Amino acid sequence: MSYSREDLPFIFIVIPTRNSGKTLRKLLESLEMQSYPKDKIEIIVVDGYSSDNTIRIAKDFGAKVIMNTARGFYTAKTIGALSAKGDLILYLDSDNVVHTSSWLLDMVEPFLKHNDVVASEALYYGYSISYPPIVRYLALIGSDDPVSVYLGYYGRYSFLKQRWTDIQLESKDYGKYILVTLRPGILPTMGANGFMIKSDVLLRLSIKPYFFDIDIPHELVSLGYNKIARVKVKVTHLHAFNYRDFIRKTYRRVRDFYIYFTKKGVRRFKWVNYDSYKLLKLILGVILIIPLISDSIKGYRRIRDKAWFLNWPLTATVTIIYFIYEILSGFYLIRQ
To answer: CATH 3.90.550.10 in the chain, residues?
Structure first.
């Protein structure tokens, strides 16, 4: 369906960065090729005082650069939201790449057709055999966190599970997108890597001083904003180019949850409603190895890529990091 220029909302694109020169150019090139009217887009790069060529790349593509004195990733998203002048805010990470020239229009379409839709998010992670093995593996399983796939709260299409989440949610397929009704207590992972939201709604939420991805849909649902669209478009996430990158980013993500939830008490959503049986099955799979190798074989038969065989080492790595921080969190609470 075609829309007149007057029908289209203004999109404010927020990209947090810090020493992101390695990937930022690819993202901005993919945004530059969009068929969406250029005068209805503004790109804001919120930078944590990069020491590489990040700022120069951003300015080369006409992006507005705002310096983030706090330098933190979570404060950068808040700064972006508070600077927004558009109808919709789109959050992209600096290591994302969007696909097809109609990507922005496809993301906007659910808002134009359904007044009660407050957010949309890309359903698929982009996949290419040219990507690094870890990036390909995460795209195939549908999550940056393989543990979320085994516990069932992943939020992208998984070629292992052949669906986008195990959570039972009311939904209706409209062809180009799936209209979903979220429910309190348990949510699929969402809120980043191609997450679009109505700016007036976002500014009603508790985003100061930190913006945490999954806390946003959690608060949306608690306030009655439960209609979101999972749009059948791809967003690549160049999450980790090697095993060292993967460990570092996983450690940082889990550490930040521990710091901001347990110590600072500013996180609002905690993953507590997962299935205990699935958790036990995951732990046994990590210990026994064979069940996770079996899943690798199952995935390989569907899409022939040796990246599937990263399933056991990466799932085991994340499980161990979670386990360590659960112990540390318990010790901290006991001391309190």
So the answer is: 8-238
Q: How far apart are CA 97 and CA 22, in angstroms?
A: 12
pLDDT at 156: 97
Which DSSP helix (H) or strand (E) runs through 229? strand 227-237
CB count, 10 Å around CB of 181?
13
**Vertex 261 angle, CA 256 and 264, to 5°:** 95
Terminal Cα distance for the chain, rounded: 58
**Amino acid letter for position 233:** V
* Whether the Cβ atoms of residue 203 and residue 220 lie closer than 8 Å to each other: no
Whether the model clears a pTM of 0.90, i.e. scores above it, the answer is yes
Q: What angle do CA 322, 323, 328 make, to 5 degrees?
A: 95
Give the three-state DSSP class for 59.
helix
State the pairing for strand pair 177-181/96-98.
Answer: unpaired
CA angle in degrees (0–180, nearest 5) for 205-114-10: 65
Peptide bond connecting 209 to the previous residue in cis, omega within 30 degrees of 0 = yes
pLDDT tens track for 56-89: 999 999 999 999 988 778 889 999 999 988 899 9
pLDDT digits (tens, 9 = 90+) for 156-177: 999 999 999 999 999 999 999 9
| CATH class of domain segment(s) 8-238 | alpha beta
Sign of CA dihedral 94, 100, 103, 104: positive
Per the structure block, which two tokens stand in for 254? 């889990």
Q: What pLDDT does residue 310 have?
A: 98
Element (H, E) at 323: helix 311-335
